[in-house]
Design brief:
Blueprint: H1 3-8, H2 27-30, E1 36-37, H3 53-56, H4 61-64, H5 76-95, H6 111-117, H7 129-138, H8 183-186, E2 192-193, H9 202-212, E3 216-219, E4 243-247, E5 250-254, E6 263-266
Parallel strand pairs: 1-2
Antiparallel strand pairs: 3-6, 4-5
Family: Belongs to the peptidase C1 family.
Organism: Meloidogyne enterolobii (Root-knot nematode worm)
GO molecular function: cysteine-type peptidase activity
Length: about 280
């Protein structure tokens, strides 16, 4: 495999940095409670009932089921987090009795803004979704649709099925000229950010999705993932795939200690989130 594939999967090759401290978020910005960061939460669940968020949150079914093409850019971390943020924003409004319409661009949030401006990330060379979530808490995120729809403050800049390896645009603090709202006014913020880790938290993740909608998941990336085609992915072999190099016509897998061992997947599942 070439380095292109690593970038497409969003492998973060840069040095891992500590996340920024949270900023104080006003009531006017969030209009809710629980504005703090939680690192870990334990809970339990005993039911094994199949679940599809599109059925539970029917007013948001179209938004939850929408899939964005990241093109030839290792931006899955940004696309996943902005998509989950969009889903959860819709669900929170639905619970308040004011769900957004499917074609309302003010309810779609920008992977482009996150890709270019989120701190402690590496643009099209990958990023940590936890840092991306922290950025939605400390700095907020503006609106923005996919490349095809092309509306909102910052729509996605790259076309679907791109064949050129793209570079993230420079961060700008302004919306497109077609969007009639100031960048700072267009921002929306997360009310809290936390992560769960380990097999013991599967039930807690299920409960979170059932209660509030989409989450973003990360997992160890193995060499056999390149051959995944469909169904629930499971990993039967040992070494973790961190980087690759090529010598003449031969390909070699480099098993390293840990430049990156986590990749993100959109657990909402934007396609189909079933628990059985």
């Amino acid at each position: 495999m070439e380095d292109k594939h690593l970038k497409m999967l969003g492998v973060k090759l840069a040095k891992t940095l500590a996340p920024p401290p949270p900023r104080n978020v006003s009531k006017e910005e969030n209009k809710g409670e629980g504005k703090h960061i939680r690192r870990k939460r334990q809970t339990s669940c005993t039911d094994n009932v199949g679940f599809d968020a599109r059925n539970t949150f029917q007013c948001c079914a179209g938004i939850i089921g929408a899939i964005q093409d990241q093109s030839s850019c290792g931006s899955c971390w940004a696309v996943a987090v902005s998509s989950a943020f969009t889903d959860r924003y819709c669900i929170s409004r639905m619970k308040a009795g004011n769900p957004p319409a499917f074609n309302d661009p003010t309810a779609r949030f920008s992977a482009a803004d996150m890709l270019s401006c989120a701190t402690y990330t590496s643009g099209c060379n990958g990023g940590d979704p936890y840092n991306a979530w922290l950025w939605t808490y400390t700095s907020g995120i503006v609106t923005g649709t996919d490349y095809t729809w092309a509306t909102g403050c910052k729509p996605y800049p790259f076309p679907p099925h791109g064949t050129t390896m793209y570079t993230a645009p420079a961060c700008t603090y302004s919306c497109t000229t077609a969007w009639n709202k100031a960048y700072s006014v267009d921002k929306r913020f997360s009310q809290m950010v936390y992560f769960l880790q380990g097999q013991g938290n599967v039930a807690a993740i299920q409960n979170e999705i059932k209660a509030n909608g989409s989450v973003v998941a990360v997992f160890d990336l193995y060499s056999d993932f390149y051959y995944y085609s469909s169904g629930v992915y499971s990993q039967p072999i040992n070494g973790i795939l961190i980087g690759e190099c090529r010598d003449s016509s031969k390909f070699f897998v480099e098993l390293m200690s840990a430049v990156l061992s986590l990749q993100k997947f959109h657990l909402a599942l934007q396609i189909l989130n079933n628990f059985k």
